[in-house]
Design brief:
This protein is α/β, with parallel strands linked by helices. Helix content is about 20%, strand content about 25%. The protein has 10 helices and 20 strands. The strands form 4 sheets. Strands 6-7-5-8-9-10-11 form a 7-stranded parallel β-sheet, with helices on both faces. It has a 5-stranded mixed β-sheet with strand order 12-14-19-16-17, with no helix packed on it. Strand 2 and strand 3 form a beta hairpin.
Length: about 550
């Protein structure tokens, strides 16, 4: 179509015997530049026609086949083509979509003028169940199972139905709200007991169940307190960490709420909750409608990855929770629910927006690895700062919003570009014990990646025999070091850990890190070689080792 139009334009220009004017450009003027002098120079370089129509805006209007060479002229601030057509964003027909302010904030549908055909993506909602008869979920629930008894398609609390609606309410169906992931197929795992508690065992079983049924994205709008300064109230669970690693190794993207202050000793709380605090889990904090970060949203300088709207959220609710009153015309939606849902707020409701975005990326490019999906979502986020409504947020990455506000359109554009974030074939290898990857042979070179904010530690198991000398060298991002831990070490990444099990380490400075260690006496066995990012940074590294006698 474009070539046909161009040919027609050229033919008309020849018939009229006038110069072709195939494009329009705004040429910005630098302060102090003479419009008359600059107009003459621009016309001379481009061969086009220059007018002063845009002069009140500090620019000249150029009509010419090309603006080549204009940007280099003295006094030119910028050159921008003005006749490039912008596409309208897809607008859902769902009547309540206009009240879903978070759709516009995250640019959820701005990537397309019309909704494209998307591949189905299995999304697990591990929560309090779902109202299986709700019209918004007709044809959307692939499978449901309860790990705490009762019917998973009955939701006494409403939380799971609310979360599921944000992700997968039927889109463009002329009723209710608009779900953000139109091709999501829901795997619903019920893990919340009647008293609103969640056992780690139920959560771990649910994660494995979902992964074994093909879940590519798992939403965890739940959490346990993290307090690395007080071990007695820190709720770290090795079982939960193992379940997360199991899911990530099998290609699932895990997204979790960073937590709300009503479950913490004080407000705001400076640490992300578990499982958001675990490696490879994308932790999501909340934003208010004015762009600020609510006090209830947990902070974390390292483990808070991304922010999304988390106040005044409208979504689906079990119809049984709607009050028995005829005045409520939107039964089945949060405006008809209990008070705590009518103005739904919490990081629990920010996380499913990111889950939906991850599902969209996988619908477009199902070959993406989990670390590629999270990198696309975080590195395309819109920075949150005072200029966007958050005076407490410094520019760039911060403890309140991580990399910034979710920007779905930018993430989709990056996912469909030629160059993608790198894959890491050795993940997950985040700690000692069974999570470490075995490296065989007398010498080996490993190419992998590390990320201070998401993947601080890579651990490898190497078999060393009595009397052997083990030499290792690492070239990677600045601030990355090497450590060697003795056999039997169970964890290498807790703040209170004694370093008595560490037998060797590299220098503290330098791009290349290296050490050499000889196994003494009868201390042979499986040692743990750790690559550790100790300061902000991310990127690929090359790790090599050699065993000699």
């Amino acid at each position: 179509m474009r070539s046909t139009l161009a040919a027609a334009a050229l033919l008309l220009a020849l018939v009229a015997a006038e110069p072709a004017a195939s494009a329009r450009f705004a040429v910005g003027l630098e302060a102090g530049a003479s419009p008359a002098h600059l107009a003459e120079r621009i016309a001379g370089v481009s061969g086009g026609r220059v007018s002063r129509d845009l002069l009140p805006l500090g620019a000249l209007l150029l009509e010419a086949p090309s603006a080549r060479g204009v940007a280099r002229l003295p006094g030119v601030a910028y050159v921008e083509r003005t006749d490039a057509r912008r596409r309208l964003a897809f607008t859902p027909t769902d009547p309540l979509a206009a009240r879903q302010w978070y759709i516009e904030q995250t640019r959820a549908f701005e990537a397309w003028p019309e909704l494209p055909t998307l591949l189905p993506v299995r999304v697990a909602v591990i929560d309090s169940g779902i109202d299986g008869g709700h019209p918004e979920f007709q044809g959307r629930i692939l499978e449901a199972r309860s790990f705490v008894g009762g019917d998973p398609r009955t939701d006494q609390h409403g939380h799971g139905t609310f979360v599921a609606g944000i992700i997968a309410a039927n889109l463009d169906n002329g009723q209710g709200i608009a779900g953000l992931a139109p091709s999501a197929e829901l795997l619903v795992a019920k893990v919340v007991r009647r008293d609103r508690s969640v056992s780690v065992e139920a959560e771990a079983r649910a994660i494995r169940w979902a992964v074994d049924r093909g879940a590519r994205v798992i939403n965890l709008s739940l959490g346990g307190l993290r307090d690395p300064l007080h071990a007695d109230r820190d709720t770290y669970s090795p079982l939960e960490a193992s379940a997360v690693a199991y899911a990530q190794r099998r290609g699932a993207v895990l997204i979790a709420a960073v937590g709300n202050a009503n479950t913490a000793p004080k407000q705001p709380w400076p640490f992300a909750s578990y499982p958001a605090a675990l490696p490879h889990v994308l932790g999501v904090s909340a934003l208010a409608r004015d762009g600020s970060v609510p006090l209830f949203s947990h902070r974390d300088a390292i483990l808070n990855d991304l922010a999304a709207p988390g106040t005044e959220i409208l979504s689906t609710l079990p119809r049984a929770l709607a009050p028995a009153r005829g005045a409520c015309t939107v039964a089945g939606y949060s405006d008809c629910g209990p008070d705590e849902y009518r103005q739904g707020e919490g990081t629990s409701f920010a996380a499913p927006q990111v889950t939906a975005a991850a599902a969209l990326l996988l619908a477009l490019r199902p070959e993406l690895a989990p670390e590629q999906v999270t990198a696309l979502l975080t590195r395309t986020a819109a920075d949150v700062s005072a200029s966007s409504g958050c005076p407490a947020c410094p520019p760039s990455r911060d403890a309140l919003t991580g990399w910034g506000r979710l920007d779905v359109a930018s993430a989709i554009a990056a996912a469909t570009a030629d160059e993608l974030p790198p894959r890491d074939a050795y993940e997950t290898n985040d700690d000692a014990g069974l999570l470490a990857r075995r490296l065989y042979g007398r010498s080996r070179t490993v190419e992998a990646s590390i990320d201070f904010w998401d993947d601080q530690s890579d651990v490898y198991r190497v078999l060393l025999r009595a009397g052997e000398r083990f030499s290792a060298a690492l070239r990677g991002p600045a601030g990355t070091r090497l450590f060697l831990w003795r056999p039997g070490t169970e964890r290498v990444d807790v703040l209170s850990l004694s370093v008595i099990d560490r037998v060797a380490s590299s220098a503290r400075r330098g791009v290349v890190q290296r050490f050499s260690y000889r196994v003494r006496g009868r201390r042979g066995g499986w040692y743990f070689l750790q690559v550790k990012a100790q300061s902000p940074g991310a990127g690929g590294y090359s790790l090599g080792f050699e065993k000699t006698r």
